[in-house]
Amino acid sequence: MALDAERVILGSYGKIYVDGIWQTNLNHLEAYVEIQKRELNLSGDDWVRHKKGPKKGTGTMSGFKVTSDMIRREFNKFEIISKLDDPEAYGYERIRLMNVMPDRVQLANWTAGEEVTEEIPFTFEEYELLDPIEA
Predict the structure, then answer these.
(1) pLDDT number for residue 13
(2) pLDDT tens digits for 18-36?
């Protein structure tokens, strides 16, 4: 069966919540979890084997600057909830990022005659899939 194009999720319906408050000025969010793998060289085996190690969560959110909220927060931890909710999709997805800490705080980044944007790279320590999308 071919893919139903109506079910493809558009990011236009994405929302970012920081500590429960919808950030209407932000229009981009990326979050990844990477796992560190330990390489094991075993006798009598010509393959390098791998054992799971610790995980690391990283991400970035960006959009238009409208307040000094991120400057005030400094490097204090907060929570992000990412929500994708395209009305034509099979449902919506919410992912909670916990213990989020900015990697850097943008104090100034502007050019005359242009909108001021803000980018916040961050790390996080755990995540939870609150609402998965089911086919």
Answers:
(1) 83
(2) 999 999 999 999 999 999 9
Percent of the chain at pLDDT exceeding 70: 100
Instruction: Give the DSSP per-residue string, the chain.
Output: ----GGGSPPGGG-EEEETTEE-TTEEEEEEEEEEEEEEEE-TT--SEEEEEEEEEEEEEEEEE---SHHHHHTT--EEEEEEE--TTSSS-EEEEEEEEEES--------TTS--EEEEEEEESEEEEEE----
56-67 burial, b if ≥16 CB within 10 A, otherwise e?
Answer: ebebebbbebee
